[in-house]
Amino acid sequence: MPDIKNIDFVEQVAGAFEARGLTLSDRLFNEVMAQILKFSASGGVIDSGSKSNKQVLAETQKLLENYFASGFFSDFAPDIVTELSNIQDSSEYFQQEENGVSFSDSYKAAQINPIKKIFAQNALDSLGQSAFNTEAASPIMKVLLEATQFGYTLKQTQSALKASTDSFGRYTGQVVRDSMFGYDGQINGAFAAEIGADAYKYSGSIIQDSRPQCRKWVKMKTLPFSELAKEIAWANKNGNGMRPNTTKENFAVLRGGYNCRHRAIPIKIKTD
Fold first, then answer.
1. C-alpha distance from residue 90 to each of 9, 13, 96, 187 (Å)
2. Main-chain phi, psi angles of 3, to 5 degrees
3. Mean pLDDT of 79-94
4. Domain spans of the chain?
5. What is the distance between the alpha carbons of residues 268 and 199, in angstroms, rounded to a whole number?
6. Which candidate, 19, 78, 103, 222, has a CA 20 to 30 Å from the CA of 166?
7. Which pTM does this prediction carry?
8. 8-state DSSP, 47
9. What's the rounded Cα separation, in Å, for the pair 133 and 149?
10. In this structure, are residues 52 and 195 in contact, taking their beta carbons and an 8 Å threshold?
C-alpha cells in the first residue's frame, strides 16, 4: 500500500485501481473471446443466421450476468470505501504537517463522514449492476449481435470486442479516480474553512503531459487566496483543460482541470 505521507498518495491509489480495472477488462475480453471462437464460421467469416450461433449468444449473455455477480463487484468495488478512509488519513496528516492542526472526532463525524458517505455511494452506484450493463454488457452484446447478423470476420469481431472491453476498463478507472480526487478536494475545502486557511499549497509530481497551469502552480508551491482569481484567469487563457466555473471557493476540488493529479492542501501563511 502507498504511504499516506506521500503527497502523491491519491494518485498512486487511483493508479492502482485503474490498473485493476484494466486487468478486469482483459479478463472479460478473454472470456467473451472464448465464446466468439465457438461461433460457426466459414473461412474466418461468422455465419449469419446460424441457429448454433444464437445459442452461443444466449450463453454469452448468461456469462456476462455471472461475470458481474461472481467477480467484478467483489474483486473491485468494496476496497474503494477503505481507500477513501486512507485518503482522509493522508489529508489529515498534511494538515498536521503544514498547520499543526488535528481534528476532533466530533468534527469529523459531523462534517467529514457525510462527505465520505456521499462519495462512496456514488462510486459504488457507478460500478453497480446497472452501470456494468450499460458500460460493458450491452456494448459487448451489440458487437456480437452485429457480428452474427452481418457476417463479420472473426478478426473484425475480435477488434470490436477489444475496443469495447478497453472502454469499460477505462470507465472503471475514471470512476475511481474522480471519486478519490473529488473526495480529497472536498475534505480539503472543508479543512480550509475550519482552520481559516488563506492559501493552498499546490503539490504533486510533474509528468510529461502535465498542463501549463499545473507546472506553474507546483513551481510556485503556494497559491494565496488573494491571488487565486488571477491565477485561474491565467490558466483559462494560457493553460488548457480547466473546468468551467472554477473559482476560489471550489478550487480544492477542481484544481488544475479535468483529471488533475495534484492536491491543493489548505494552509495558513505564516507571518512574523
1. 7, 12, 10, 11
2. -85, 125
3. 93
4. 9-196, 197-272
5. 6
6. 78
7. 0.90
8. P
9. 21
10. no
Taking CA atoms, 145 is separated from 69, 124, 246, in Å, by 23, 29, 44
The mean pLDDT value for 225-245 works out to 95
Q: Are 145 and 98 in contact (CB under 8 A)?
A: no
d(CA 47, CA 35): 15
Rounded CA separation 205/192 (Å):
22
Give the model's pLDDT for residue 49.
Answer: 79
Residue that the C-alpha cell 485501481 belongs to: 17
Q: What percent of the chain has pLDDT over 90?
A: 77
How far is the C-alpha of 154 from the C-alpha of 159, rounded, in Å?
A: 9
Mean pLDDT of the chain: 92
Backbone angles phi, psi at 270, to 5 degrees: -75, 130
C-alpha to C-alpha distance for 225 and 248, rounded to whole angstroms: 7
Exposed e or buried b per residue across 181-200, where buried means at least 16 C-beta atoms within 10 angstroms of its C-beta:
bbbbbbbbbbbbeebebebb
Q: Are 195 and 268 in contact (CB under 8 A)?
A: yes
Give the pLDDT confidence of 247-271 residue by residue, as tens digits: 999 999 999 999 899 999 999 986 5
The string of pLDDT tens digits covering residues 5-60 is 999 999 999 988 888 888 888 999 999 999 999 999 999 999 987 889 999 999 99
The conformation of residue 153, written as its DSSP 8-state character, comes to B
- CA distances 22 to 38, 178, 246, Å, are 25, 16, 31
Which pLDDT score, from 0 to 100, does residue 1 have?
64
